[in-house]
Amino acid sequence: MPVTSTVSANGKDITIKITGRFDFAVQNEFRDCYHGIDPDDGASFTIDMNKASYMDSSALGMLLMMREHLGGNSANITISNSSADISNILTVANFQSLFKIA
């Protein structure tokens, strides 16, 4: 599966791993990883991009929709382990001002 998620034992830390292309084709899988989470639950999310090979503008939109669903400015989302190319896309889109980038 291109998108998988794991939840910590306490249910508060969710890691979403992207494998291969992060584009419109994985929209439903990606949304399913966070859609049932209540923004008031205080969950923190990590988007692990270690195995992502590609990211397009639809993926940027999916990240923005996730952020909005989880409370906007109060959302606790970290994007981690991005390749140089994906990091450049995130920087050009100024995502470092909206997400934690690790």
From TrEMBL:
Report the SUPFAM superfamilies cross-referenced here. Answer: SpoIIaa-like
Q: Which PROSITE patterns match?
A: STAS
By its UniProt entry, which InterPro entries does this protein fall under? Answer: STAS_dom, STAS_dom_sf
Per UniProt, residues of the STAS domain are 16-102
A GO molecular function annotation here is: anti-sigma factor antagonist activity
PANTHER family named among the record's database cross-references = ANTI-SIGMA FACTOR ANTAGONIST TM_1081-RELATED-RELATED (PTHR33495), STAS DOMAIN-CONTAINING PROTEIN (PTHR33495:SF15)
**The protein, known as:** STAS domain-containing protein
The scientific name of the source species is hydrothermal vent metagenome
